[in-house]
């Protein structure tokens, strides 16, 4: 008959040893640990103070300045929206003066569109690439606008890359179909009718309720004919 194992207190002894070592470490390094805690508290306090006392007022200032620029933008006064009117800043100055704010980030988007409308396509690309957003729709439109700017510069292969990025970012009947169609047209200009056909058929299959799907059959027919020649 097997003997029963007699439980030992080794486990408890190990725990006690660990606790003793921890207590000893804290006693020996109390000064250093206190300094570390104080430094963390100071950094946290400084960050919260920075956000409340500096960043928040800057954000409010930027919003006030940008309101007028946005009004000019809505009125298609793109130069005034960009450069300001002498009394209020334009998007360019907002980007420079309030670079740390969310408003400055949004100003990059507005400035990019303004530059595009004014025919300054390289500046449009620069600003739009500096824009970042969690808003799927606005971020998608920004990518598509970069594609438009590259088309105007004659850089069609780069343009189609951005159209496809915009189409794939968040699939929906509006932006996806729109930028797929633009990509298809650019593929045709590049003589790549097979790829053009692929994106046109994708619109027909995946986005049948979109505006672009209404006449997509004629684009499909044309791309098929050209691909066969």
Characterise this structure.
This protein is mostly helical. It has two domains: 28-131, Alpha Horseshoe (Serine Threonine Protein Phosphatase 5, Tetratricopeptide repeat); 133-229, Serine Threonine Protein Phosphatase 5, Tetratricopeptide repeat, CATH 1.25.40. It contains eleven helices and no strands. The chain has helices at residues 10-28, 30-74, 78-83, 91-97, 102-117, 121-130, 136-152, 156-169, 175-189, 193-206, 216-228. α2 runs parallel beside α5, α6 runs antiparallel to α7 and α9 packs antiparallel against α10 (193-206). It starts with 9 loop residues before the first helix and ends with a helix.
Lay out the secondary structure.
Elements: H1 10-28, H2 30-74, H3 78-83, H4 91-97, H5 102-117, H6 121-130, H7 136-152, H8 156-169, H9 175-189, H10 193-206, H11 216-228
Helix pairs in contact: 2-5, 4-5, 5-6, 6-7, 7-8, 8-9, 9-10, 10-11
Summary of the model, kept short:
Helices cover 77% and strands 0% of the residues.
Using brief descriptors, characterize the structure shown:
Serine Threonine Protein Phosphatase 5, Tetratricopeptide repeat; 229 residues; 11 helices; 2 domains; mainly alpha
Number of helices: 11
State the helicity in percent bands: over 70%
The CATH architecture classification of the largest domain is Alpha Horseshoe
Number of domains: 2
* Main sheet summary: none
CATH topology title of the largest domain: Serine Threonine Protein Phosphatase 5, Tetratricopeptide repeat
Q: Uncertain regions: pLDDT < 50 for 5+ in a row?
A: 45-54
Give the termini distance in whole angstroms.
92 Å
Number of strands: 0
Q: Tell me the CATH superfamily of the largest domain.
A: Tetratricopeptide repeat domain
Radius of gyration from the alpha-carbon trace, in angstroms: 30 Å
Give the SSE order as H and E letters: HHHHHHHHHHH
Structural class assignment: mainly alpha
The CATH class of the largest domain: Mainly Alpha
Mean pLDDT: 84
What sort of overall outline do the alpha carbons produce when their principal axes are compared?
A: flat
Strand fraction equals under 5%
